[in-house]
Write a structure and sequence with these properties.
By secondary structure, the protein is α+β, with helices and mostly antiparallel strands. Helices cover 23% and strands 26% of the residues. It has five helices and ten strands. Strands 1-2-3-5-4-9-10-8-7-6 form a ten-stranded antiparallel β-sheet, covered by helices on one side. Helix 2 (78-97) crosses helix 3 (180-195). 30% of the residues are buried. The model has no long low-confidence stretch (mean pLDDT 95).
Length: 254
């Protein structure tokens, strides 16, 4: 029977530093001269092997986004934003193209409810040897209320059939070339979550998907996950999606 689970190595997990809640913990990504197993560098952006590879049957890398420990995707300059997202997509797709993995994950954790452990801005690119994430990535989870789009270009929506539930922002573009509005819509989603969301939150995730000739980013504000999803896998759709879509458009696109 084919496995559907990722296996987490707890003996490695207990060694990982934690700097999101533990403010006394020295940041390992700030000690740039001490970083090892570096794969690629573009100015302040560094891709390296994960020092704590907790996932079994996987090749784990960390993408350090900036040398500013207090930086965030929501406030990067446009120049750095495009440099970062292009760098990340390039190395993600190159890992896919090696043919060594069933699938390759590309994602970001931010904040205490995101599942991350290091506060310094970073993403992860993880090659899975035995699992294919696309099996559970159905088209409807990227459908939604259109908030902005370019003719023959990126599209920005608010999910009407969210994967986990409540509020999920989707950005999509064709995989044939990088388009700047893709990253700019992504930054808008993160900025809205941290600064204008109707419920106070300091946590979010960004998940990237490469499916059927398109690249998607799904941005999720993170709260305590609803028990109906944890226990039964039932996503909930809130009643104020139209209001939120109009409010975001008013703030950023009017």
């Amino acid at each position: 029977m084919e496995t559907k689970h990722l296996y987490f190595n707890t003996s490695i997990g207990v060694q990982k530093p934690e700097s999101i809640r533990n403010k006394e913990q020295a940041c390992p990504f700030c000690a740039r001269d001490e970083l090892t197993n570096i794969i690629a560098v573009d100015g302040p952006i560094i891709l390296l092997k994960n020092k704590y590879p907790v996932l079994e049957n996987a090749y784990q890398t960390v993408l350090i986004e900036t040398d500013d420990c207090h930086g965030d995707l929501s406030s990067y300059s446009k120049e750095h934003l495009h440099r970062l997202i292009q760098f990340g997509i390039k190395h993600w797709l190159e890992m896919e193209q090696t043919g060594k993995y069933r699938s390759v994950l590309f994602f970001k954790n931010h904040g205490p409810l995101s599942g991350g452990s290091i506060a310094h801005p970073h993403m992860q690119i993880v090659g899975l040897h035995h699992l294919d994430y696309s099996v559970t990535a159905v088209p409807e989870m990227f459908a939604g209320i259109v908030m902005a789009e370019e003719k023959d270009g990126p599209r920005f929506t608010l999910s009407t059939r969210p994967r986990v539930g409540f509020y999920e922002f989707n950005i999509e573009m064709d995989d044939s070339c990088y388009q700047e509005r893709f990253s700019e819509y992504l930054q808008v989603a993160v900025h809205y979550i941290l600064n204008h969301f109707p419920f106070k939150t300091s946590s979010y995730n960004v998940f990237f998907y490469h499916l059927n000739g398109k690249i998607y980013a799904k941005v999720m504000p993170r709260f305590v996950t609803t028990p109906l999803y944890i226990g039964y896998g039932l996503p909930q759709v809130p009643s104020n999606l139209e209001w939120m879509a109009e409010e975001l458009k008013r703030i950023y696109f009017s």
